[in-house]
Structure to design on (384 residues):
């Protein structure tokens, strides 16, 4: 095991600067749409680097003021509203340096709380026309949809009062969009269409859900979003990147081994970074044996993540894990059903859910595939 060497790759978090692989056209197009205040749907499978693209654009623009919110795993609308409001406030202060605004908020909230004898659950206070938090006492239950609507409108009020524009980047949007359903999307659409100082980037890893958001005639956002698709990286770009990163850090790798590297990663950005990083810890001479060992180590590294995902699905219903296990071997529902001993004609609701969360995609009538080739390989190896 080598130590104390330069790191040619970076894994486990959004990448920037020298670790970033291409995506120039996607970044350029996204920045262009944001600057024109267009609403965007940024979609691509997991691990394709969508969040890295968002972070890259955040560093490039300051008008409109970029506000990033990760929607994944947010438990309810109240929590989402709180996170969104905090992000808008902090983003405005960071990009404008308006320290007086923060001081005014703290003073007003402190004075208001001091006048209330009951236990607070929510807040509803105003500073001029641009800051509003709903305030409720324990005896009063405020509709979470109203609280959430206030949070979305906070950026609009603040922008109008301060002469600023905002772009709200909602990452992993399918997680809340699919859970909160059509009523949420309709309410959000009515908010978005009235706003003049705010534009949106809806980013998600469920191709089915995100595509339907734009292309389904029944969707509240039908033809209302500019669609940017993020796919696997072009092979030539990955080859050039991998070779350059290894060579810059004094590693030796041949073109033949790079081809093997490509075969294992499928040109998916996250796996390119992971496999490269693991290989760099094994040897300075990156041979085919090193890449094969690194791939096995990568599967071990991802084991807990994949098992946690599978466990959460099986808490909903054990059929989810069975469907994924079957689809790791067969692409037709009939063959998958025979393999797992279950009539999948009775499991279309579960199959639709797996599509919505981006784990499988429909390829033809009665045929589906697991979207992540590494997850598919892991399932084959671990579940008979």
């Amino acid at each position: 095991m080598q130590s104390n060497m330069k790191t040619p790759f970076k894994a486990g978090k959004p990448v920037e600067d020298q670790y970033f692989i291409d995506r120039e056209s996607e970044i350029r197009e996204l920045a262009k749409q944001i600057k024109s205040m267009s609403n965007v749907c940024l979609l691509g499978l997991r691990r394709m680097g969508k969040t890295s693209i968002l972070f890259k654009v955040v560093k490039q623009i300051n008008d409109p003021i970029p506000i990033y919110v990760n929607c994944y795993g947010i438990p309810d609308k109240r929590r989402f509203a709180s996170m969104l409001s905090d992000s808008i406030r902090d983003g405005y202060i960071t990009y404008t340096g308006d320290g007086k605004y923060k001081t005014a908020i703290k003073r007003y909230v402190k004075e208001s709380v001091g006048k209330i004898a009951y236990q607070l659950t929510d807040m509803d206070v105003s500073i001029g026309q641009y800051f509003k938090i709903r305030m409720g006492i324990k005896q009063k239950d405020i509709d979470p949809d109203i609280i959430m609507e206030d949070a979305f409108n906070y950026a609009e009020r603040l922008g109008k009062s301060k002469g600023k524009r905002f772009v709200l980047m909602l990452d992993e949007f399918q997680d809340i969009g699919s859970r909160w359903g059509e009523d949420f999307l309709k309410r959000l659409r009515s908010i978005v269409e009235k706003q003049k100082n705010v534009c949106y980037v809806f980013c998600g890893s469920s191709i089915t859900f995100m595509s339907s958001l734009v292309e389904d005639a029944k969707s509240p956002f039908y033809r209302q979003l500019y669609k940017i698709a993020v796919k696997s990286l072009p092979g030539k770009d990955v080859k050039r990147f991998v070779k350059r990163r290894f060579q810059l850090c004094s590693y030796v790798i041949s073109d033949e081994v790079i081809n093997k590297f490509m075969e294992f990663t499928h040109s998916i950005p996250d796996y390119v970074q992971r496999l490269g990083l693991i290989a760099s810890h094994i040897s300075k001479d990156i041979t085919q044996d090193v890449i094969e060992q690194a791939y096995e180590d990568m599967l071990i590294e991802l084991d807990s993540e994949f098992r946690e995902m599978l466990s959460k699905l099986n808490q909903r219903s054990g059929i989810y894990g069975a469907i994924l296990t079957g689809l790791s071997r067969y692409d037709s529902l009939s063959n998958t059903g025979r393999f797992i001993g279950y009539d999948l004609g009775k499991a279309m609701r579960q199959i639709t859910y797996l599509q919505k969360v981006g784990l499988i995609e429909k390829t033809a009538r009665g045929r589906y595939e697991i979207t992540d080739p590494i997850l598919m390989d892991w399932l084959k190896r671990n579940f008979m």
